Amino acid sequence: MMHGFIPPKRYFPYLTWIDIQEMEDKANTVIIQPLGAIEQHGPHLPIAVDSTISLGVLGKALSKLADSIPAYSLPCLYYGKSNEHDGFPGTITLNATTLLSVIREMAESIYQAGFRKLVLMNSHGGQPQIIEIAARDIHQKYPDFAVFPMFTWRVPNIAADIITKQELEYGIHAGDAETSIMLSLLPEQVKMAKAVNEYPSGLPQDSLLSMEGKLPFAWLTRELSKTGVMGDATVATKEKGDMLLESVSDGWVQLIQDIYQFRQPN
Length: 266
Ligand SMILES: [Zn+2]
What we know:
The protein is α/β, with parallel strands linked by helices. It has helices at residues 17-22, 49-64, 96-112, 128-141, 159-162, 165-170, 176-185, 221-224, 238-261, and strands at 30-35, 71-73, 117-122, 146-151, 197-198, 231-232. The protein has a single domain, classed as Rossmann fold (3-Layer(aba) Sandwich), CATH 3.40.50. 38% of the residues lie in helices and 9% in strands.
């Protein structure tokens, strides 16, 4: 089944061109492009993690969304910009220009079909910058096209209540949050026996500079981690994953409703 986590009636590729041509209120129909990556996520998680999270959270949110709100999921863009994981086999990366072009050209097709609201739902921490540039460029070219560059985890959610402070700050890749939510979404693909606890090493001490945050330095994963994990995957549980999935998808229901109501200031 091609739709995977997405409810079939919310899966854009299942529509016909006549369905799309005759759709009512296309101006406010929310079209969502899930974006992920195919990149290493440590010895215990499959390379499809970020794509799985986009699709899993979106599918759950769309299954809770009221029928009165028109919203559709496009097929996931599995490939992203993942060159920070250079050297770990299996990582497949587009360069920034290619990714920008793919998003721009997809958006133009959606615009030509008559839609005026497009959400870029990204779960990969290595590409929010590209997605923000794409959104601004598309909106500048088509001012009546509302574009929303979103990061999946940024909706209100309970992560801060169930994940440690250290993990929230440094567990940025294949750690507790991602491993737990994968245990909820795709448990048969998680090898918990191989999960490790590895925080980034060699970070500057007593310095204004940090890995992420306000004054960062550019880094490659292999400079900071031997296993490809940045965080503690060993403490992940399905229970935490279920709670995260429930809460992040609730956040997305609220966000999709707000986008449906949104009117572009002008
Ligand atoms: Zn990830």
